[in-house]
Amino acid sequence: MTTQSIKASRAAAMGERIKRATLETLWRAYTGENSGILIVVVLGTIVGFSLYLRDTDYLTADNMLSIVRQTTAITVMAVPTVFVIASRELDLSFAAVVPVSGFVAALLLESHNMIVAVAASIGIGVAVGLFNGLVTVWFKIPSFVVTLGSMGVLNGLSLRITDSQAVSVSNRTFLDIFGAGSIGPVPSLLIWAVVIVALGHFVLTQTATGRGLLATGANEKAARYSGIRVTRMKVGALVASGVGGSLAGLLYVGQFAAASYTLGGSDLLTVIAAVIIGGTALAGGKGSVIGALIGSLLIGTLNNGLVIIGLANPEQLMVRGVIIIAAVIFSARTVRNRRRPASLGGDPSVT
Amino acid sequence: MTNDAAGRALDLRGVSMRFGEVRVLDRVDFAVEPGSVHAVVGHNGAGKSTLMKIALGVHQPTEGSVHIAGSPLTPAHPATARKLGLGMVMQERSLIDTLSGLDNLFLNDEKIGLTRAIRRRAQRQEALALTERLGISPDVLRRQVSQLSPVEQQMLEIAKAVRLAEHVLILDEPTAPLSHREIEMLFRLIRRVAGLGAGIVLITHHLNEVFEVADHITVLRGGKVTLSVAPARTSVPDLISSMLGESKAAVKSEGVTRVDVAAAPALEVRDLTVPGKFETPLSFSVKRGEIVGVAGLAGSGRSTLLRALFGAARPGGGAVRLMGQSYRPRNPKHAIRNRLFLIPEERAEYGLVTTQPIVDNIMLPVLGGLTTWRVVRDGRGADLAHQLMRDLKVRARDHRQVVNELSGGNQQKIVLAKSLATRADMLLLDEPTSGVDVGAAAELIKIVGELANQGTGVLWVTSDLQELLTVSDRVLVIADGRIRAVVPRDGEDFTEPRLIHLMQRAGLNGGEAA
Predict the structure, then answer these.
(1) Nearest Cβ partner for A218 among B312, B353, B407
(2) ipTM value for the complex
(3) Inter-chain contact A350–B406, Cβ cutoff 8 Å?
(4) Which residues of chain B neighbour A222 with C-beta distances below 8 Å?
(5) B22-32 and B37-42 as β-strands: parallel, antiparallel, unpaired?
(6) Over the Cα atoms of chain B, what is R_g?
(7) Which domains does chain B have, with CATH numbers?
(8) What domains lie within chain A, and their CATH numbers?
(9) How far is B126 from chain A, CA to nearest CA, in Å?
């Protein structure tokens, strides 16, 4: 081997190392406590749209608020989805809970007290989540299969309940709390989003439950051998996910003053995309609620801007799809780097 | 120089390797003659793996040359090494459980016909010829890998490597999952492969094995060769002192001196049965401060017994008492709450969340105790981790270092730290020193001895009989699903050959049932 070729191969190795280090630093900045890069991306998107759309009323407080309003339901579902994915499960049924719980609330509001309507609606999410969770852990079936089934049942149910008819809601208090109302200048939807995100972030990062959830997702066997009730963690995450769907249903009904079977129709993939863009690993063991918030804001900003630009729905779908794939590639890449076995090209200190 | 190299299966000359500032190998000469078995021993971190990765073409050495069967390894790439006739059996298994032995043998190197279909008959013929040549039962080809015993799987791995590697075969810890009898079978195979003309490199932690099979021994320490000798001209103590250098006193902890064993038993097991493993009721007890060793062939149910006590495998019937209190194994959380802790055999799989930091792992079993209103007090967790890391002399950057960056010995100390955090009265250890270097093993033995001194009861499962004799106050010999013998420290059976005899008398045909 000549010195020249040694130098060349060393330079190549160095280049690879620098490339990897840069990617890792970027990734850490983006998934770490401060999701810095992602915030920059969201702001960049807004600035880009503002410049492109400077003649329209894109960059107005009203429009920014409407972005928040449009993404609240997504955010509310994304938070428990972080729990589910971080514990290495997958829930495909939460978006199908949305119209069912919306209908139940709307129908009960016609005859009952608001509290009864809201409680029943949330109860649906709890029941669906419990069913998903218990079937998953008792029969040891992958949760995505169980929830795929639940999704089908719920979809059929929401069509059956009202024969595809919308049910309108006129209860003022309900609409104020879950829809158009505000406390001072702060819209109630924004409050919902902030409360749910804060609660989710707190549970995941500060409580024993959060630690148990992450340990379960990272290594279920070791978590169990350390005394973590892994089945409880999984069932809990799936129940939270069902409740997220219920709450999103209430928020949609509040916004539109009506329940319809189309509510939440395209939310499943949007929510999962937001969570993964936010740095939660599909392989489990790693999750960020703040990342999921920013992920859903990014998608919300994109949707809003693309609408104002005048893109039709097909183009919107395509652009969004491309962005989601890009995000998942990035996520998969880092997970691979992290999982690389020490025996091949690993850290020299482990020899 | 190249002239010498021509006659050798593998020839590494003046090989040095640096990773950044760290010099991992320092002008190492290492040669393997065709038809011979060359053992490489050394601490974790001595440079064994790096040396092998250089031979394998994974790393380009900073200095020095590599020749395989006389040809230089350029460019340094695994594909080049393979083409030159070098193969390796990794510590991690490379077989696919759901495929047959035959399909595994040809995995990713299938014989393809004109229509792109696999030429099954040609494959079978070649495979049969290979097993014949190696003296392996052709039965392993037919069965699914998941149905093969550990030694059959290991033999299949070797056959797979031999098929592609005619000159050099590197075996990394091939005996780790095997029992005594199985190791002998494996060694017969290794000798046979060598007899066909290949040079074999055997990396191992088990020094006794070296004398049974190797023609030459190389000891590495701190990236340098400290001993290179024929087995007839050295001994286990010699090897140990070459591995350890000046600090050899550390290993000389001959036995664990203990204060008087208190009368109250830490663990009392009466008529315990475990479906499928122990149909005959088991009874034994472990006193406070006592270390009870468990001897048995692989597959004898040693691990199952520990898991059943820990509540990770459901026991059938029987009564268990912990520190005098009635205890019914339910699940690990329940066991931990009752101050019983298991240090499981497969560290990375069951013992640790390896992608998480040290501190998170240590906190995991005691999360409930480190919270106020369910909120985790990270400060207290960090204090706990600091103290345990100091007590156990864990070598790590800090308590936030991710566990999979640590050496095997330090990882095992983290598992031990978890058990200390739970303040277990009764400790179950399953192969605690497997994959741990000699120095760290001695430290672990010392730490557990100190725990016993403070009154902890210990049940210690290991395949390493030397270790068993060093640590145990008594040894339970398990075979055929029951306790075959209880050997006290001063009993006449408390020797390696007698224990081997006891284990095997019962298990003559049970030895291979994994």
Answers:
(1) B353
(2) 0.74
(3) yes
(4) 349-353
(5) unpaired
(6) 24
(7) 3-248 (3.40.50.300), 250-339+462-506 (3.40.50.300)
(8) 35-334 (1.10.3470)
(9) 30
